[in-house]
Amino acid sequence: MYTTRLVSLIRSRGLYSPPGRYDAVPSYGKIFYGSGYPITGVIKFLGYYDSTFNIANFPSISINTDFSEAFSAVVLTEDAGNDSVIFDGVEDEGAKRRPIKALNVFRNIYSVRGSFHLYVSMKRKYDNAKGLGESASMAAAAARSIARAVFGEESIGDGPFVSKIARLASGSGSKSVNGPLSLWISDSGYSHDSSFSLNLPFHGNKISICAIPLSGDIGTEDAHSAALRSPFYNAWASYQRQAVFDFLNTEFDADTIMRTALDSTLKMHSILMSSASLVWTDRTMKIVKNIMNFRLHGNSVSLSIDTGPSVVIMAESDFELRKVSDAIGDICIEGKLAEGEPKIPPEFMERAKESLMKYT
C-alpha cells in the first residue's frame, strides 16, 4: 500500500514526527498573534478527497518564500455564532466565506465554544499577483494565532499539529507552517489527524529565487475543479504519488528541487489544459520558453508556476538568476527561501488592537 510505504520511508530517514495532542483551554477576551510565509509548489497538488477538511488526493511538496508575509490577530469571545473576519481593514462577505467555514470545522473538531474574531493583513513586495501562495501564508498566520488562543504557546513548536489547523483554511497552508522545504502527507481516505505536514532538511547549495508577479482571473478553487474534470487526473495523481516517493529518496539538494518543480509545473499545466482551463497568460508562456532555452544552453535555472500566471524563477546562484531575469526583461522581485514566522510589525499590532479592542 502506497501510504504505508511512504510513512515507512519517512521513518527510515528520521523525518517522521507525528502531531502531538493538546488540550483545548481557550483564552477568552485576549488578542493573540501569528504570521506566515507563502509557498511555491515543488510537487504540485490539485483536487481534494474531502473538501470539508481539505484532505488532498495525494501528497505534495513545497518551498516557503518571502515574496509576501501574512499577519493575523484573533480574539475569542464566549458568545456563539458571531465570527468575524477582517482583511486589511475591510470585512468582505465574499472573502470571509472560506475562513468562516474553516472556523466552524475547527470548532467542531476541538469542541471549542464561542466566536472567533480575526484581523488579517498582507505585506507584499509587489502590487498584485495570482499564484504566489498568499492563501497559504494567511492560513498559516491564522492557524498560529488560533493555536496560541486555544492550545497555548506550547503548541506552536509542534509544526505538524499547527499544520493541521492551517490546512482547514488552505491545503497549502499546511506546508507553509513547516518550511522552508516541506512535505504534506495526504491521500484519499485520510482523516484530519492523519493529514499534516513535515519539515524536510534542505541540503547542498542555496537556491536563488525571484518572482514575476502576474494577474489572473482563475481562482484556486476553480483550478481544483478543472483538474478533477481532466480525463487524465487519476493517472496524474498516481504519477504525483510516485514523484513524492522518488523525491524522498534524494538528498533534497538544489538541483533536485529545481528539476522537480519544473517537471511538476509542466505536468499540472497539461492537466488543466486537458480540461479546457488555462491559467497561464501569453506573458507566462514567453517566460517559460525563455527558461527552457536557458536550460538547453546548460544554465542551472528553473521555474515553478502554481495556480496562476505568476512565475517563480529559480537558479543555483545569484549570478545565473540575474542573467536570466535580465534576459527575460520583466521586473523579477528578489526573494529567498523562508522559514519560521515573519516578525509582526508594530503598526499591524496597533491596527489589530484598534479593530479588536471591542472584543477584549
Outline the secondary-structure elements.
Elements: H1 2-12, E1 31-36, E2 39-43, E3 48-50, E4 55-56, E5 60-64, E6 68-77, E7 84-87, H2 97-110, E8 115-124, H3 134-150, H4 159-169, H5 173-176, E9 181-185, E10 196-199, E11 208-212, H6 220-229, H7 233-247, H8 254-274, H9 282-296, E12 301-304, E13 311-315, H10 318-328, E14 333-335, H11 346-356
Parallel strand pairs: 7-8
Antiparallel strand pairs: 1-6, 2-5, 3-4, 5-9, 6-8, 9-10, 11-13, 11-14, 12-13
Give keywords.
single chain; 360 residues; alpha+beta; 4-stranded mixed sheet; 4-stranded antiparallel sheet; 11 helices; 14 strands; 20% strand; globular
Tell me briefly what this model is.
By secondary structure, the protein is of the alpha+beta class. It has helices at residues 2-12, 97-110, 134-150, 159-169, 173-176, 220-229, 233-247, 254-274, 282-296, 318-328, 346-356; strands spanning 31-36, 39-43, 48-50, 55-56, 60-64, 68-77, 84-87, 115-124, 181-185, 196-199, 208-212, 301-304, 311-315, 333-335. Strands 1-6-8-7 form a 4-stranded mixed beta sheet, sandwiched between helices. A 4-stranded antiparallel beta sheet has the order 2-5-9-10. It has a 4-stranded antiparallel beta sheet with strand order 12-13-11-14.
